[in-house]
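Page 47, continued from p. 46.
Same chain as before, 148 aa.
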Amino acid sequence: MRFVVAYDGTPIAEAALDRAVTLADAIEGDVATVTVVPRHNKEYARGRDWIAEEEPWDEDEIVENLRASVSSIAPEAMFRYRMVERFATRGKIGHILRRSAQELDVDVLVIGSENAGRVFSALTTVTRSVSQGSYDIYVVRDTASISR
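Result:
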């Protein structure tokens, strides 16, 4: 069974990755991550602690830091990223996550979303757009139980 985690390095995404690894380990499955990086969007990058306030945009460094972050939680996980235009909408990001999940032929897409609530129609997350795939969805809403 293959798990794919929507990963942006935030604590909730780290919890989602940790949960996916725990599940995959239990059934001898594998884990991949997909990260969407809006090019030259310093505000987006700073909001996810990819760069500090005074740091310039460095695409290679951001990607390598994200790769290292994934590796620190899940050394065996595949790391995949996609660059998008600077002001990509949440729908565009969701579409890329959904398409990546389909390309990787996943069984379960794991998403960290503190505000997913009880229904996937929350307009403030990408959850709605990724819920249309042919895979199961596991939504992680709590960072408290990270095991690694």
